[in-house]
Amino acid sequence: MYKVKVFDEEHEKDLEASVNRFLAGLKEGQLIDIKYDVALMESEGEQIYCFSAMVVYRA
Questions:
Q1: Given its phi and psi angles, is residue 30 left (phi above 0), alpha (psi -120 to 50 degrees) or beta?
Q2: Model pLDDT, residue 32
Q3: E strands in the chain
Q4: What InterPro entries does the entry give (predicted)?
């Protein structure tokens, strides 16, 4: 069975830490793919970043 885990953080280092913690719990051969994206939005003159990743793995 395939599964996905989605991560969403405001800072890229936080995303990196979250994904690394999750990957540390996977067994060899479970990881299939990682998709990464960055979104930028402006609100009241302030730039807001959204760093996200989707990990596809075998359960």
A1: alpha
A2: 98
A3: 2-9, 31-43, 46-58
A4: Spore_Cse60
